[in-house]
């Protein structure tokens, strides 16, 4: 689906979608790009990023991919910098699709459980607020 088939509700907007090389994240990225957005997709695995970018570009969609584990502060910041430096210095929409796998076992059985979960769910939002506030 190209933007010609969509409603162009996101025309000329920059959208970042985490964990977006397959599943729901990929479907979100595809749909938003089909409606005119420049979409920055990400995954922990570079091969997955490259494959997803290739697929979306073959559909005529405007995408950029970045390897990023949202639990890693430097990788989160690199993802946001890629979006702001390559496009219009502003992120219009940030979709945090990354999650903790329910198959990893109970939280109490994992090393540093609270820190890992907080980094995953809150770290990305904190980074995005930092970028937003620095632009004011």
UniProtKB/TrEMBL annotation:
UniProt organism field: Nephromyces sp. MMRI
Organism phylogeny: Eukaryota, Sar, Alveolata, Apicomplexa, Aconoidasida
Pfam name, any one: adh_short
Family: Belongs to the short-chain dehydrogenases/reductases (SDR) family.
PANTHER family per record: DEHYDROGENASE/REDUCTASE (SDR FAMILY) MEMBER 4, DEHYDROGENASE_REDUCTASE 4
Gene Ontology MF terms in the entry: carbonyl reductase (NADPH) activity
Protein name, as recorded: Dehydrogenase/reductase 4
Superkingdom of source: Eukaryota
